[in-house]
Design goal:
This is HK97 family phage prohead protease. Residues 20-161 form the Prohead serine protease domain. It holds the Pfam family Peptidase_S78. InterPro entries: Peptidase_S78_dom, Prohead_protease. This protein is an alpha+beta fold. It has one domain (8-184): Serine Protease, Human Cytomegalovirus Protease, Chain A (Alpha-Beta Barrel), CATH 3.20.16. The protein is built from 3 helices and 9 strands, in the order E-E-E-E-H-E-E-E-H-E-E-H. Strands 1, 2, 3, 4, 5, 6, 7, 8 and 9 form a 9-stranded mixed sheet that branches.
């Protein structure tokens, strides 16, 4: 099966999986294995292994961007790894740059709660439910975003207990997913 070689994005929102420490260190899951997202895709366990190995061998890093904008790096991902749950990331927002300071403030206030991966699909199949099972991805970047696609999780600062705007973000994520699906066609 042939795949489009354009850069794709996969969004995720997390409850207690992204933590902010000291105002600039963030850690959490950028992708969860086995979860069906708004684009009807499922990322399989091990999908990032080849890409992460290649990056390590080259001494390269996954980029931390603001809203997938390559002109706006906002930090450094110090650790990016797979575990049994998904793709875990830990990094530092660069508060010496304007967008890094903004991101830290927005996360702390609960106004920004999404992560999104930028990748290319290397291997995928369709399952019996019609979903695309992504088995090998070339990971390029992990962005902080406003509207994530994976409704099973959201980003929160350590002090956040509740999320009164979750319903609105769910609706926005559905629109973003539909927009992404239309762009793929």
């Amino acid at each position: 099966m042939e795949y489009d070689t354009r850069l794709e994005h996969k969004f995720a929102r997390f409850s207690d999986t992204l933590e902010v420490e000291d105002g600039s260190v963030i850690s959490g899951y950028a992708s969860l294995f086995g979860a069906v997202d708004q684009g009807n895709d499922i990322v399989a366990q091990g999908a990032y292994a080849t890409s992460l190995k290649a990056l390590s061998e080259r001494g390269a890093r996954v980029k931390m961007l603001w809203q997938h904008d390559p002109a706006q790096p906002i930090g450094i991902w110090d650790e990016v790894r797979e575990d049994a749950r998904g793709l875990w990331v830990k990094g530092r927002l660069l508060v010496s740059v304007e967008k890094g300071r903004e991101a830290a403030a927005l996360i702390s206030a609960g106004a920004l709660d999404g992560l999104s991966i930028g990748y290319r699909t290397r291997k995928a199949t369709k399952n019996s439910g019609g979903q695309r099972l992504l088995t090998e991805l070339e990971l390029w970047e992990v962005s902080l975003v406003t509207f994530p696609m994976l409704p099973s999780a959201r980003v929160a600062a350590k002090s956040d207990d509740t999320d009164p705007d979750a319903g609105l973000r769910e609706l926005a994520a559905a629109f973003a997913g539909a927009r992404a699906d239309l762009a793929r066609r």
